[in-house]
Amino acid sequence: MPSTMPGRKLVKKYLANNHIKITDLAKMYGLSKQDATEYISGRKTNPKANQFILKVIRDFKIE
Fold first, then answer.
1. pTM of the complete model
2. Is-contact 43 33, C-beta < 8 A?
3. What is the mean pLDDT of residues 38-55?
4. List of residues 6+ apart from 48 with CB closer than 8 A
5. Phi-psi category of 2—alpha, beta or left, where left has phi over 0 and alpha has psi -120 to 50?
6. DSSP characters over 16-43
7. pLDDT at 2
């Protein structure tokens, strides 16, 4: 599976630019804040983390 690090960076930038807290994003997707933080930071790169990043990019239409 290709790396999703560029996507993680896009998500981080989008959240910062739109004043969206990771806590709020985690609630929207039914995750703990810790999991969402680790997925976005890249500390966790398992398939579930990658799916989360791709879903956020798709849902928010991040380019």
1. 0.89
2. no
3. 95
4. 39
5. beta
6. HHTT--HHHHHHHTT--HHHHHHHHHTS
7. 55
Mean pLDDT (the chain) is 93
- End-to-end alpha-carbon separation of the chain, Å? 20
For the residues 8-19, what does the mean pLDDT come to? 96
C-alpha distances in Å from residue 1, one per residue of 18, 29, 30, 34? 29, 23, 24, 24
Residue 60 DSSP one-character state = T
The answer to whether 25 touches 36, Cβ cutoff 8 Å, is yes
At residue 1, the pLDDT reads: 47
